[in-house]
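Record pair follows.
FIRST:
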Amino acid sequence: MLNLFINHFRSSNIFLVSWKTLVFFNYHSKVANKQFTEEELKERLTSEQYEVTQNAGTERAFSGVYWNEKADGMYCCIVCDAKLFSSDTKFESGSGWPSFTEPVDEKIVESKTDTSHGMTRTEVLCTECGAHLGHVFPDGPGSTGDRFCINSASLKLEETD
């Protein structure tokens, strides 16, 4: 019975700790190491960053701060600061979102099937906190053929000198 109750609330990011206590938790990731309360996230993220990372939203093409960024550095998760993508792997895809050929470590991102909006895609999540980052497509220029199409709202650039 408890499992049925928990499964019912997973889509709402609510977890039953006891019969008297409910806790909000990001269920996007199976392996999230860092957890934040809804209040913490809403306080420090913009409404767009929150919508993208916590509700699998998507910013409009060509609207994000990093889609045309040329600076060298490391792109980190806006939620937990995990190092995700190097500027060395960033390329111009013409999509209007920052695109990368690969993450800095294959274990830092988690992929899962996304069937929302009447299509099947591969969603990309931060394994450290479960934040939605974007999607990966098999049409990239690198040796793997992957194009990680990532929302600027889910990233922060740590520039190198």
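SECOND:
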Amino acid sequence: MLRLVPQHLATRLDAPMMTRDRLARGRDHPTIRMNLANLLLCSCSSCPSFPRVYGEALYCASGISSVPITEKGCNCVTCTVYDLCSSFNVAYFCIHGHCGAKDDRPVAMRIKDLAGSYLERFTAFEGTEPRGKQTDLGAEGAEVGITLHFIGDKDVRTTSKVPILEASLGAGIPHTHVCGGRARCSTCRVLVSEGLDHCRPRNEAEARLSRTKGFSPEIRLACQTTASGDVTLRRLVLDDTDIQVAIREGRADPGDVGREAEVSVLFCDIRSFTAFSERALPYDVIHILNRYFETIGAIIDGHGGYIDKYMGDGLMVIFGLDRTTRSDHARQAVSTARGIIQALPGFNQYMRTHFNHEFAVGVGIHSGTVILGSLGFHKKKEYTALGDTVNTASRIEAYNKTAGTAILCSERTRDLAGAGFRWGRQYAAEVKGKNEPLTVHELLV
């Protein structure tokens, strides 16, 4: 019946059939105007995702419903609005996914949407405001003289009321600002290396764009930022290629902008896979790998791990990106390694029955700081981690072959993992790239 309401009335009538707390949050949302015109109702008689809720609804964040949204079955809708929603233009409102019309979109599109939803779970980044307590920024209306130390450019004298972009342009610095300083393109971005506590908190326009781009606290929009004291900073967009990269950021890859994080990295590799692949049919090789990855992938996912990449029969996993388990990343990584080894006998029973072959697995884990970001050609990017922590984890995994072990963890990972695990032998591993032997510990299952 709601579909029969005339458009001119629908845009003025508040939408009903929403649980009270969700309705209150929606009405207070700055970008959503909830009315009958932008309402979609779940067609489930009883929604498995929200028990005891009937007629659960999704409201489009397109403001006044001027942009249509298209229902694609019970479990998802496609929204053509990009900026005001999320980095991926599919909003899921029934996670059960077993009801409604079949999704007939091309496989590549469905995989892209699924991968995007998976990635957003691990790239949601709350750090858009400066860390630590702000210093006294001065009384309202007070104006003081400050110096902006532009690394690689010049020192600029200005006042606390003048935006950084205006000050730099006035001093003759060729500061890029494609959108004209309206907080829409982010090309005026700067990296604040000293004096971040002198920068005033982000205003609404800067905060919105920073969330879309995934900026860390140290990256600020020069067009919107003023400071109460001296600041040392560096321009980040310097030529036409930089401009193209900056504008694309956030459109298809959350986390395009690099940031540091404390994580645990796990590498896992199949032993004796080459012998199997050389005598198996191509179909069987792919089938078995997918069966194997499905088996261990469920264990990884259950412990909050982000599958970074597949490398033939191996894979790399990052723990510490899922906000619900972020602080326990080492424990989650070690628990995952144990779970993988425990699941192997069941997998090998299938292998023996159908292929007269068994797999052994080696796992290596190290914890430390990594650089996170999306890398690659803009049509095919990959969200990944870089740094010594990643390299060390890979080397530890490889040392299993020398030690004759299944799971090895660095001493830092063992210390962070805490109690509840059984540890075996200790090794002084000669690791490529390290001047001193690395202490690693065997995890017993």
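COMMENT: The radius of gyration is 26 Å.
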